[in-house]
Give the backbone structure.
Amino acid sequence: MLKVALVLAVAIAVQVIAAPAHISPSLKQSLKTKGSVNVFVTLKARPSIVLSRINSLSFATREQRLITLGASLKQHAAASQESILEFLATKQVTVQTFWISNQVSVKNVDAELLASLVARPDVLEVFEEFSVPLEQPVDPKIVQKIAENEWGVKIIGAPEVWAKGNTGKGVHVANIDTGVRYTHQDLKDNFAGDYGWFDPYFGTATPDDRSGHGTHTMGTTVGKNGIGVAPDATWAACRGCATSSCSLAALLSCGEFMTCPTLADGSNADCTKAPRLVSNSWGGSGGQSFYDDIVAAWDAAGIIPIFSNGNSGHFCSNVGSPADSGETKVIGVGSTTEDEELSYFSSVGPSVYGQIKPQIGAPGSDVRSAYNTNDASYATLSGTSMASPHVAGVVALILSAHPDHDFAQVTELLYSGATHTVASTGGSCGGIPDTEYPNNYVGYGRLSAIGSLP
């Protein structure tokens, strides 16, 4: 650990070289209009130097890797943020720090303070705070639970995998969403408990859901009684989204919680409690890199990121971020119907970086799952938000069968097991017709649990 610390100290010194910080024209305009703005300050000492070092080392166990990763990222941020925090302590502002991205949130910044921040030699960029949309479900309906196994669970062959004794046991999964009604009859038995919940908005001690979206998505991943793909996996959650949008501060806080979980009050961090995967049914417009540092940290921690592709329809290259991330390892997910068609709302690729997106399609139209109204309520929702949790469930099944598999090994099984059964739209994006695989409509094909785990 001392050796890692010395390397980081040298790297920080090298990175902090005088150069003008970037400031967006929109921030200047907001300041002119409002008089003061809430900003994020990105430090020049990037977390990538920590991740490169961690990825070059060998660890006897994942737990050792997680502990070293968390400690190194926190040490890196503390060292490089010390000077700017001392400076900000002399100002009448509210500050929040983020070790996972080495950024500082500063409230009520006026023109004079902004000029001082931009002039600092340790600052890379200053930008106005923003929120990211929650992928809003299409055609929501409150319904009764009728089917023994929901159609999405059946069509991907999850019951056949269960029959072989694999129900996701031993795998810890998580989502970043609107929260989860943890007392729901299909979710209460496999909630992780301590280190299983964090709420950056309201600081609640136990999980709740004021929207229904997060309960629904978690139900599809790990719910009991036929609604979930991996019903014996344990789950954790972080409220990254309040109702219809997700603040950047909350998303960063949730990114930290997934990398190094704490108790609900933020105390007693234990990085060894990190999940194996995180399902995300939210995203903004394409071509944004605001979450790349977090996903890169997850990769170093052995956490597999799964993101919904977006609900913008079949116009080429309208996939959202972070699903379209060009620098990090993510699984982007499109949506399919019970009739084996591409859902009319499912966004398609390629990404702005030229990558095929989504990587895979999964059931996302008229998906019934748990809801937040009461402990026995259900709803039918549609969206790529509903597709991503199906993939998360299959990834959990793969990890239950192959606990030591990494991102490349998991995705090899995931993609090679996908079916080519989704009807053609007659379209072509990125020069690839949707009759060829992989394509920019359903990637390598439609998700199949039994195909990936025959």
About this structure: The chain is about 30% helix and 20% strand. The first helix runs from residue 2 to 15. The CA atoms of residues 261 and 270 lie 6 Å apart. The radius of gyration is 22 Å.
